[in-house]
Amino acid sequence: MDLEEIDQGVFEIWKTVQKLEYVNPINQQEEKEKFMKSSYYNPKFNFIPLDFNPDKFIKQLQSYKKELDSSIIAGLISKKIDKQIIWINLLKSRGTEKFTEYSVEYYGRPDLNLISNALRILKKNSKREEEPPTITAEEMAEHLNNEVNRMKLDWSVKVKENLGAKADDVAAEETLYIKKGEMFTKKDLKRLTVHELGVHSTRAFNAKKLKYKIFFIGTAEYEVTEEGLAAVMEEKEGILEESILRSYAGRVLAVNMTLQKSFRGVYIFLCRYFPKDEAYQLTMRAKRGITDTSKPGSFTKDHIYLKGMELVRQIPDLRPLFKGRVGVEDLFNLRELRI
Predict the structure, then answer these.
(1) Cα–Cα distances in Å, from 275 out to 240, 267, 270?
(2) CB 135 within 8 A of CB 186
(3) Is 259 helix (H, G, I), strand (E, B) or coil?
(4) Once rounded to an integer, what is the mean pLDDT over residues 288-314?
(5) C-alpha–C-alpha distance, residues 298 and 287, integer Å
């Protein structure tokens, strides 16, 4: 197989497996109601079954890696293959102790400096915005679809149930999903336009113009940069609300604590800094992929927002990061490839 064929093969597997819907609980609302009515109950989450053969995909990826040459592109694909295998193993291990191990291997975990920074943000910033959320998910989707047309992005925006976040940009489907039942503020209209369309969708859209699909599916370490860049662009546009920065800080603490504590233990701690509904949401995000949340265990993705923000702030010229779904670590390779 030549390099383009391997690139295409990795892309086809990525399209099937790289979906957060596999770790998002499908019984979110029912479990939240049980939790809120009790003083001791910890949610028990259910997930959709995998609709692919994970072992078959792992073998395919391993065979692709053996045929790679020593070029820069091959090196990027090789690292992505390693990351994809970890992701597939993570999905295979949902509801088991191995899930957390694979999550830490894939996303890492917050270090002491990041945890300290998160605590400083929460202790320093205590004001709450008073703007009430009056915009429905359907109205938000309509607004963002209009923005897609204005920005001339080949993307769509749809409303969907059981997302792990209020919005989820799924590049594999070239679609931005808005969580059904959520309410948004007027400030969210501009923030999601910048964060989701201006960064996530734009990077993927630009990557489609490049020869190799590795830049569309995302290089091995692109995700920290992806979320950090979105936060930094909010900051540059003057729309990084205090509540959002606090949320990023809360996510760091939620990830760190869920590695050691039950859902309720983490929730009780976060209630020191957040309203009950927000504390629940932060904890739920960090307990995705965990069936019995009375036990320690974490989906550690959420610390990368604040981590990425700190990383991207150090980059003087952000323009190369919009050429595709790449990480700060890839900037040298982009220059070498003259992309």
Answers:
(1) 20, 10, 9
(2) yes
(3) coil
(4) 97
(5) 5
136, containing H or E segment:
strand 135-136
Burial 184-203 (b: 16+ CB within 10 A, else e): beeebbbbbbbbbbbbbbbb
Whole-number Å distance between alpha carbons of 335 and 339: 6
Q: Which of 206, 231, 236 is nearest to 320 (CA)?
A: 206
Contact indicator for 39, 110 with CB cutoff of 8 Å = no
| Residue at token pair 């890839």 | 330
User: For all residues of the chain together, what is the average pLDDT?
Assistant: 95
Split at pLDDT 50, 70, 90, the class of 130 is: low
Question: Any residues with CB less than 8 A from the CB of 41 and at least 6 apart, and which?
Answer: 34, 35, 264
pTM over 0.90: yes
Task: Tell me the backbone φ, ψ of residue 251, rounded to 5 degrees.
Answer: -65, -40
Instruction: Confirm if 335 and 142 have CB atoms less than 8 A apart.
Output: no
Q: What pLDDT, in 10s, does the model give residues 169-207?
A: 999 899 999 999 999 999 999 999 999 999 999 999 999
Domain boundaries, the chain: 3-115+207-336
User: Rounded to whole angstroms, how far apart are CA atoms 137 and 140?
Assistant: 5
- In this prediction, residues 7-22 reach a mean pLDDT of 96
The mean per-residue pLDDT over the stretch 316-325 comes to 96
C-alpha dihedral, 238 to 176 to 285 to 80, nearest 10°: -100
The Cα angle at residue 226 between residues 8 and 212, in degrees rounded to 5: 20
Helix orientation angle between 276-286 and 242-258, rounded to the nearest 10 degrees:
50
pLDDT reading at 94 higher than 90: yes
The number of beta carbons lying within 10 Å of the beta carbon of residue 102 is 23
- Give the mean model confidence (pLDDT) for residues 111-122: 97
- Contacts (Cβ under 8 Å, ≥6 apart) of 28: 45, 162, 284
Assigned token pair, 233 = 């662009």
Alpha carbons 141 and 159: distance in angstroms, whole number: 7
CB contact at 8 A, 96 and 299: no
